[in-house]
Every structure is written in C-alpha cells, then in structure tokens.
Amino acid sequence: MVRYSVITSAFAVLVLTACAQQSAFSPLADDALAPVDRPKPVVGETATWCIGNSDGETCDQVETKVLNIAENGCATVFEREGTQSYCPDEGPFFLPTAWDNEDFGKGRREWNAVFGELWPLKVGTRYIFLEKGEDHNNKPWVRHGELRVLGAEKMTVPAGTFDTYRITVHLGYNRSYDMNYAPELGSLVYFDRGGPREKVAGQPRFLKAIHHPQG
User: What is the CATH number of domain 20-211?
Assistant: First the structure.
C-alpha cells in the first residue's frame, strides 16, 4: 500500500449495519498529532472501502477514484456509477459540494463559515458553518452544521493502524457523521453517516487500501 493524500468519502452507503465496533481503536494524548493542513488530492488516486464491517476478506467493497482536479482545487471523484466533487478549500472535505449518482440523484451544496477555522485541523477544532444547496428535484435547502475534533486516537482498519483525529459533524434534521482522519494518508480511514460510534446504529465504512499512480 502506498500512502499518499486522497479525497475519499463515504457519502453514499448501501448497507445498514451494527458492526461499527469491529475496528480497534484506543485514545491518544491530545498532543500526539500535530495540527494538519488541508489534503491535496491527486488525479488517479483510488481508495477501497469495506462497507458494514471491518473484515477485509469478507466485507462488501466499494472503490473511489479521483478523476480530475479543477483550477480551484476541487476534486471530481467517481463512485458507484456516478461522480461527486470535493473542495478542501470550501468546507468539510469529506462531504461533497456536488454529486450526480444512482444513490442520491443530482444535487449541490456550498458552505459559509459562521464560527471558527477548519484548517489547520487539530484537537479542539470547532467549526460552525451554514450549508445550502439543491436536491435532485432542484428544491433548495438551508441548514447549519457543526464540526468538532473530539480527540486523537489510534485506529486499526483493514488498511493498517494509524494515528487519527476523531471528528464528528452534526447537521440539521438530527443528522450526524462520525469519522477518523489519518494525517499521514490525508484521508479518512473510518466513516459512519449513521451517527456516533457508541450508538452502533450507523452505516460504517473502513478503509482497506489507498493507491497512488506512479509518476
């Protein structure tokens, strides 16, 4: 496995499961990780994810691939017969700014910071933002969101063991995301769009591999 930065996400998930605790994690001191700047996606990078459980041999899998990078730094990523765009400079990089796929149709969103700074990411980061966009029926929506970096922890997933930031994001309509971000990869290694990990009621993904094209 070659470890480079990549924009990867778990925005589209098919399996509802209660297996989020199958990965191993343990707390680290808050100063175990240095503050980290935004990731830089690279065309051709791919990531393979286990869906629903962390058994790399038996899990359902999905692959994402960075197709191109726009002048503004936004990455277009292919997944599940569709594409999503991620913009590290514009907001939470693990939530897409635009999407067109079979799971969620077509839509877009944008962010406006209300409080705090997202980068550099560090323990204690609190970032409040206003999010607005359109769904696949061109219906507009607006909601507030809040991102918090709760702490640092060591996490084992099929791709290996990494020192990570634990992050939560709360959006409107009682929607929340729980995730772990590994600075050495520039990528999430765990993502659950179903809620806090302790509730074990979400739709988890565990990183299995990241590959970078050889230049």
Answer: 2.40.360
